[in-house]
């Protein structure tokens, strides 16, 4: 299937590893031009080198989505370099899953308001060009209540789902689509679930056994859905909250 992404400009945050990097690679494989962002410059440059080695065009810009000025510089750099932004994928997360007030603060500032800052920064150019696709990477935690103390993380992800729906309704007349993607638990080298497997096996096994396939997901499995969702082939999909979780979520919606 031709996803009609060749030459499109995509801005992806949280793109130095895991799901974000897999999404960036998937978009590059479809011919999209990329601006990738993350806080850590070294890891970001390594990610950019991987994309370039595979033939992709990429601009790497270090950014802290919890800071308005940093987000402004990121979007300005992408627009100056490419002249437009067709796709925004907000994937940065504090992954602050504790139950303390600081976890609330981090989750709301990065996961939720980071997305708001990015969207507000790209909307003027998308409105002017009369098109755009916005994808907010949420979580199955935004629709499924687990017996963990991740109150702030869960609440931030649930808010992202609502934000995507509102954006879809308000910005549809401007030719802009907005959706949320809800990954289940995903394991990759250096990621939180790999750490959990060695440091807290009971929790890891509880989650693994809750998934019908008997394993956690892979970043590439999330990326495949994301790349389709921002493409023209999903042109009639907006305001959706798409779960990609291997059946981890048990709710009927």
UniProtKB/TrEMBL annotation:
<protein>
    <submittedName>
        <fullName>SDR family NAD(P)-dependent oxidoreductase</fullName>
    </submittedName>
</protein>
<comment type="similarity">
    <text>Belongs to the short-chain dehydrogenases/reductases (SDR) family.</text>
</comment>
<feature type="domain" description="Ketoreductase">
    <location>
        <begin position="8"/>
        <end position="196"/>
    </location>
</feature>
<dbReference type="InterPro" id="IPR057326">
    <property type="entry name" value="KR_dom"/>
</dbReference>
<dbReference type="InterPro" id="IPR036291">
    <property type="entry name" value="NAD(P)-bd_dom_sf"/>
</dbReference>
<dbReference type="Pfam" id="PF13561">
    <property type="entry name" value="adh_short_C2"/>
</dbReference>
<dbReference type="InterPro" id="IPR020904">
    <property type="entry name" value="Sc_DH/Rdtase_CS"/>
</dbReference>
<dbReference type="InterPro" id="IPR002347">
    <property type="entry name" value="SDR_fam"/>
</dbReference>
């Amino acid at each position: 299937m031709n996803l009609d992404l060749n030459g499109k400009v995509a801005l992806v945050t949280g793109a130095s590893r895991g799901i974000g990097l897999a999404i960036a690679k998937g978009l590059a494989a479809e011919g999209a031009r990329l601006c990738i962002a993350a806080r850590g410059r070294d890891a970001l440059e390594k990610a950019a080198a991987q994309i370039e080695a595979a033939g992709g065009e990429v601009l790497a810009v270090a950014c802290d989505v919890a800071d308005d000025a940093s987000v402004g510089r990121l979007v300005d750099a992408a627009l100056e370099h490419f002249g437009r932004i067709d796709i925004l994928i907000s994937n940065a997360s504090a992954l602050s899953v504790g139950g303390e007030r600081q976890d609330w603060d981090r989750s709301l500032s990065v996961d939720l308001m980071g997305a708001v800052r990015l969207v507000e920064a790209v909307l003027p150019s998308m409105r002017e060009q009369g098109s755009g696709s916005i994808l907010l990477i949420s979580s199955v935690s935004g629709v499924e209540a687990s017996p963990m103390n991740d109150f702030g993380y869960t609440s931030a992800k649930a808010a992202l789902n609502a934000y995507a729906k509102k954006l879809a309704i308000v910005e549809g007349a401007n030719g802009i689509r907005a959706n949320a993607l809800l990954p289940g638990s995903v394991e990759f080298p250096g990621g939180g679930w790999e750490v959990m497997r060695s440091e807290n096996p009971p929790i890891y096994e509880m989650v693994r056994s809750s998934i019908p396939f008997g394993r956690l997901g892979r970043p590439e499995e999330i990326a495949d859905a994301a790349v389709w969702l921002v493409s023209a082939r999903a042109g009639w999909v907006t305001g959706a909250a798409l779960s990609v979780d291997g059946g981890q979520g048990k709710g009927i919606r």
